[in-house]
Amino acid sequence: MLKIFRATAILEGISYLLLFGFSMPLKYWADIPEPNKVVGYAHGVLFILFVVMAGIFCWEQKWSIKRFSILFIASLLPFGTFYADKKYLKNLG
């Protein structure tokens, strides 16, 4: 479960950066909306998967609501999931 959760965290972070650094500029500056749909859907699925897995993982590890909140907030910030992976997940396995 930890490996899948860590992979999801990394993929969610990459999709977030791709969304804001690549597909949204294409949509708004170059009037090319197609990549934004694909990257946006992928990011949405990965975001939901990350949050659900964070909840499950916090429940299994008996972590506090504070730690879940930190993981959730990390998913909202650019590079946040990379930080969460390094600070909270990397040393568990």
Automatic annotation (TrEMBL):
Give the stretches traversing the membrane: 7-26, 38-59, 68-84
Q: What is the lineage of its organism?
A: Bacteria, Pseudomonadati, Bacteroidota, Flavobacteriia, Flavobacteriales
Q: What is this protein called?
A: Putative membrane protein YdzA
Identify the residues that the record assigns to the DUF3817 domain, covering every copy. Answer: 2-88
- Record localization: Cell membrane
Q: Which PANTHER family does the record cross-reference, listed alphabetically?
A: MEMBRANE PROTEIN, MEMBRANE PROTEIN-RELATED
A Pfam family (short name) is DUF3817
| Its membrane topology | Multi-pass membrane protein
Protein keywords: Cell membrane, Membrane, Transmembrane, Transmembrane helix
| Annotated GO CC locations | plasma membrane
Q: Which InterPro entries match?
A: DUF3817_TM
